[in-house]
Design a protein that fits this description.
Layout (H helix, E strand, L loop, with lengths): L3 E2 H8 L3 H10 L10 E2 L1 H24 L3 H13 L10 H11 L8 H11 L13 E4 L3 E2 H8 L3 H10 L9 E2 L1 H10 L3 E4 L21 E2 L2 E7 L5 H13 L13 E6 L2 E6 L5 H8 L7 E7 L6 H12 L4 E6 L8 H9 L13 E4 L8 H15 L2 E2 L6 E10 L3 E10 L2 E2 L3 E4 L2 E9 L5 E2 L1 E2 L4 E7 L8 E5 L2 H22 L8 H6 L5 E8 L2 H13 L1 E2 L2 E10 L4 H9 L2 E6 L5 H10 L3 E4 L2 H12 L7 E17 L3 E14 L3 E6 L2 E13 L2 E2 L2 E3 L3 E6 L10 E9 L4
Parallel strand pairs: 3-6, 8-10, 8-11, 11-12, 12-13, 24-26, 24-27, 27-28
Antiparallel strand pairs: 1-2, 4-5, 7-14, 9-10, 15-16, 15-23, 16-22, 17-21, 18-19, 18-23, 19-20, 19-22, 25-26, 29-30, 29-36, 30-34, 30-35, 31-32, 31-36, 32-33, 32-35
Helix pairs in contact: 1-2, 4-6, 5-6, 7-8, 17-20, 18-19
This protein binds guanosine-5'-triphosphate (GTP).
């Protein structure tokens, strides 16, 4: 038995030694380098793999009609046989001999075929085995499908033709056509779909039927204005929540849970159907049962009908609470009658709608209502798997000054634990602390439980989906990808909210919340302003304060504004240089004010479409105070250096100290040396005195601005 070294074999086959080493490794034959010996068994295997390979390459040769090349390359292989190794193994000489002895073609298929082919090239193409399965993305051209099936395009074209489809080689075939053709060859087809890493649906865990357990119903109370939604929610909470929970302080977290006959019911504590609908518009379905409150003295009103339609669209069972039956003018029968017109027919009248008569104010009939809720819950067979990572929906979220982003989450499946890694809408983090509706810290939250959590890196939106990930790293990756996606979407949409076109965007339904970032010089102002701004509501559009802070407007404020489509309000503070640049490139609107009511007025009138800025402030230059001269008769002269733009005699001046506007004033005198001048340009020194403010300090900055009339769009 003779042996051959890797490099020799490689040379013989006209391939690199590396390729041979890899092939041997694939065959589990250990070789250390190109000098290693290949034993006979391994060589046999290698020979076979080369035979198979060359059979495959023949297809190409035939296709190009260049059969001579194929034979040449076979010859080359022989010619490259290492010298001095003539005894180079019987195997080799046998194989080579195969070429010389066509009659024994079976020993060397390649050689045999080559010879045959040179006689009858058209017939000799070997059929590559049809694959068991092919994969594709989107669509395939006929030629691509042919290649995947190891067939000629003509064959596929013919098959298509027989199926009544006229196609050319380059024609794109859709999924159906691909499947049809593959079915003829008994080949399985799999469509490769790009997985969207930001889509939480891709991470959803399917529960086995056996793992599902009963869960409490999540109930929303809807109805017309003043029909008693809040009173009903309050009376349910007051009568039930504190029972057995002595000392429990109810807390408004957007939802609460009560217990009736040993069973829990979760109420979304957001009166009106606004929450219900806005969540649904985000694709979140949190409600299992809708309670429709109708005042017995008022009957069916426009919002009652709206509520019915929303509940029907969401395919949520409706229980009618006929409220205020304590009133003299109460007429429950009329309510029932009116509701039949909307397909809600009481059981007594042959329908299947549950009606409960109650007085939310007098707390009568509450137990009946709860009993009916439990009944519907049973019928609906509401289930979840508590033994898996949690997922659900954001009920409410806001930024808390002390605790950072705070979100009330409704766990809809699984159980949430403190410490869980979580992705919530576009934010993510680890559940730092969980508080229930009684204000108590809890460690776990089972299905249908509302909990308030902290630990997120930003404020999510109501209606956002959340999901707990077992792997913290994965949670972070998904969260970061989602955040990045949002930044890109906002950037590409280019439709940043600016106060000037806010009204149009509201009208077109593009804006539902106005996100604001509030920066001010002192805590008190931030708080006062945030509180007043949050109260503004025009046409159902609300102000949402997503971030507040004390100090200059920074680049990170601008980036946050850009990512969340927010407007920045600076109260007595300015953007620093980087923030200015970022705001320009990111197209973020920064509004600067010195009087609180002006801020409120501006936002409110912008929302009403009445923003009418006829004049706009234009900053024309900046100067740095380098030296202070106190002159008894004149006051304080600020020896200044113009760093940007120009300072003009008639400009208004803001004095900025540590990024905070400390005063606004007028120029009293502007001098170059001893002369009064009308303006001083960049890189020139000048002496400035102000009309009323004299407490200037070295390092102060003068910002010069003029009011310019602007053209309205
Ligand atoms: N007599 C009587 N008055 C009630 C009853 N329920 C509510 N009210 C009164 O009706 C008025 C409106 O009640 P709310 O609970 O604020 O009504 P609402 O539907 O939440 O109203 P909006 O929040 O404005 O949509 C209040 O003055 C309540 O005291 C009731 O059962 N009987």
């Amino acid at each position: 038995m003779s042996k051959i070294r890797v490099y020799e074999y490689a040379k013989e086959k006209n391939v690199s030694s590396k390729e041979i080493i890899n092939k041997l490794k694939d065959m589990n034959v250990e070789v250390s380098n190109h000098m290693s010996m290949i034993n006979d068994t391994a060589k046999d295997k290698l020979d076979k793999s080369f035979t198979a390979k060359s059979a495959g390459s023949e297809k190409v040769a035939i296709k190009t009609g260049n059969s001579a090349n194929t034979s040449n390359s076979a010859n080359n292989g022989q010619n490259n046989k290492p010298k001095g190794k003539s005894g180079g193994g019987q195997n080799r000489s046998q194989q080579r001999g195969g070429n010389n002895r066509p009659g024994k073609g079976g020993q060397n298929r390649r050689g045999g075929r080559n010879n045959n082919r040179s006689q009858k090239p058209q017939q000799k193409r070997p059929a590559m085995p049809t694959p068991d399965k092919i994969t594709f993305k989107g669509s395939l051209a006929v030629s691509e499908l042919a290649a995947k099936l190891h067939r000629e395009s003509a064959e596929i074209i013919k098959k298509l033709f027989l199926q009544g489809v006229m196609a050319t080689k380059n024609q794109e075939l859709d999924k159906d056509a691909i499947e049809l053709i593959c079915a003829e060859y008994d080949v399985e087809v799999e469509e490769e779909v790009d997985v969207d890493v930001t889509d939480l649906d891709n991470y959803k865990i399917e529960d086995k039927e056996d793992d599902l357990q009963e869960r409490p119903a999540v109930v929303t109370i809807m109805g017309h204005v003043d029909h008693g939604k809040t009173t009903l929610l309050d009376s349910i909470r007051d009568t039930k929540v504190t029972e057995g929970e002595a000392g429990g302080i109810t807390q408004h977290i957007g939802a609460y849970q009560i217990e009736e006959n040993g069973k829990k019911i979760t109420f979304l504590d957001t009166p009106g159907h606004a929450a219900f609908t806005s969540m649904r518009s985000r694709g979140a379905q949190v409600t299992d049962i809708a309670i429709l409150v109708v005042a017995a003295d008022d009957g069916v009103m426009p919002q009652t009908v709206e509520a019915i339609n929303h509940a029907k669209a969401a395919e949520v069972p409706i229980i009618i609470a006929v409220n205020k039956i304590d009133l003299e003018g109460a007429n429950p029968d009329r309510v029932m009658q009116e509701l039949t017109e909307h397909g809600l027919i009481p059981e007594d009248w042959g329908g299947d709608t549950i009606f409960v008569q109650l007085s939310a104010k007098k707390r009568e009939g509450i137990d009946d209502l709860l009993e009916m809720i439990l009944l519907v819950t049973e019928v609906e067979e509401l289930k979840a798997n508590p033994n898996r990572p949690a997922e659900g929906t954001v009920i409410e979220a806001q930024l808390d000054k002390g605790r950072g982003p705070v979100a009330t989450l409704l766990v809809q499946n699984g159980t949430m634990h403190v410490g869980d890694s979580i992705v919530v809408g576009h934010s993510y983090g680890r559940v730092r602390a969980m508080v229930n509706d009684l204000g108590r810290r809890v460690k776990t939250a089972a299905p249908s439980t509302p909990v308030e959590i902290t630990g997120l890196n930003s404020v999510p939106n109501a209606g956002d989906q959340f999901m707990v990930f077992k792997d913290e790293k994965q949670a972070r990756q998904v969260g970061e990808a989602k955040q990045q996606r949002q930044v890109e979407e906002n950037r590409s949409s280019g439709a940043r909210v600016s106060l000037d076109d806010l009204f149009n965007q509201i009208k077109q339904g593009e804006v539902k919340d106005i996100n604001l970032i509030v920066k001010a010089d002192v805590h008190g102002s931030v708080e006062a302003m945030a509180a007043s701004l949050e109260k503004i509501e025009v046409e159902g559009v609300k102000v949402r304060i997503i971030h507040t802070g004390v100090g200059a407007i920074t680049e990170s404020d601008v980036i946050l504004a850009s990512a969340s489509n927010a407007i920045i309000i600076g109260f007595n503070v300015r953007p620093d240089t980087n923030a200015k640049k970022a705001a320009e490139s990111e197209n973020v609107d920064i509004r600067q004010h010195r009087i609180i009511y002006k801020v409120i007025e501006e936002i409110e009138s912008a929302m009403k479409g009445m923003l009418d800025p006829e004049f706009e402030e234009k900053v024309i230059g900046q100067a740095e105070v380098r030296e202070i001269f106190k002159v008894s008769r004149i006051g304080t002269i600020a020896g200044s250096y113009v760093t940007e733009g120009k300072i003009t005699r008639d400009a208004s001046i803001r004095v900025i100290r540590d990024s905070v506007v400390i005063v606004e004033d007028e120029i009293d005198s502007l001098k170059r040396f001893k002369d009064d001048v009308r303006e001083v340009a960049t890189n020139y020194e000048c002496g400035i005195t102000l009309k009323s403010f004299h407490d200037l300090k070295e390092g102060d900055t003068f910002e010069a601005y003029v009011m310019e009339e602007i053209e309205r769009k």
